[in-house]
Amino acid sequence: MDLVYSSPVDSKEYPEGVDLVLVEGAVANAAHLEMICTVRERSHILLSFGDCAVTGNVTALRNPLGGAATVLQYCGYTVDPTGIVPQLLDRVVPVHYVVPVDIYLPGCPPSAARIKQALEPLLQGEKLVLAGREMIKFG
Amino acid sequence: MKKIIIDPVTRIEGHAKISIYIDDTGQVSDARFHVTEFRGFEKFCQGRPLAEMPTITARICGIFPVSHLLASAKAGDGILAVNLQHLN
Fold it and tell me: Do B40 and A82 touch (CB under 8 A)?
């Protein structure tokens, strides 16, 4: 098994032909939006990893405050004029609102046991059955 | 004026970019560190029940949830004027 894209792997670009990708975190800014579309295109199985990716969770707690401009204003920030900091989306959304997701693995965070139970059949190429409290309980 | 952007910044938790501005004499005129993530914890926590704070702030960081959880729990204790020292 090769780990081809992750923080410990210094890859600048998301490679083609990825068999399995675990996506954590919700889609909150324009860079995330672009990234998730690229990831979906170049990956065979996309797994929404963790409550933020599955439901928006804590990241989406800013949605009731209003759109991006309102939230930034509340926090006393202004939009970066150089455009280097990606623009915030007006609503934070879970991954499946943007691209089709193959598997959902909730948890905040998913426990090590849960991750192992999910990854083992996938790495063997078997079908994954997610049922019961140990596998699909949120939080 | 030349601009160099380092993206992504590695060996950190979270995401960031660095921009370096070089003037016509070849000297660095400005350098900036940009944190490219934003969630708004300071604001969306306002108005929520006190007892939620340890669990919410623990989600600030996956590597340091305990520090945030303890800090917010202690802040809550302070607000409620509770002294828990007898439990030690």
Answer: no
